[in-house]
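Hey, resending since the last one bounced:
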Amino acid sequence: MQNVAPGTYYIISRVLSPKGEKLALTFNGEGNVTVTPLTNDSKQAWVVKDYNAQNQTFSPASQSHYQIGMGDYVLATYPSGIYTWTAKTSATGVIIADAGGITNFWGLSNAIADQNVPFGEGNGSDKQRWILIPV
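The structure tokens again:
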């Protein structure tokens, strides 16, 4: 598996909502990341930058002074620091996990619009896969 190429992307869950909607990671202000139906809104654009050869940072394109980090069992945004992740391409989508032990994976247990994005133990399912679409 290879790292995701640095760039600006819409980050879409592999799992559609019950209404058949593509759900995109959305920045809703400090501390708040949810998934909402894809509209190509600027709040849905994320900048992926290399931190080092293995790890990357994720920042809202509209507010580059924030980064995605670990909140209370969900993804959250914080003022930029060293919040790094591994983001690897696979045949079934992008797998994003914590850079420390690669034990906490981004995923949706249920693909419901406006929900927070939890992270947890890897299970290999599509619920923990993401599609990155260049902006």
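The two ends are 23 Å apart (CA to CA).

Sorry for the duplicate.
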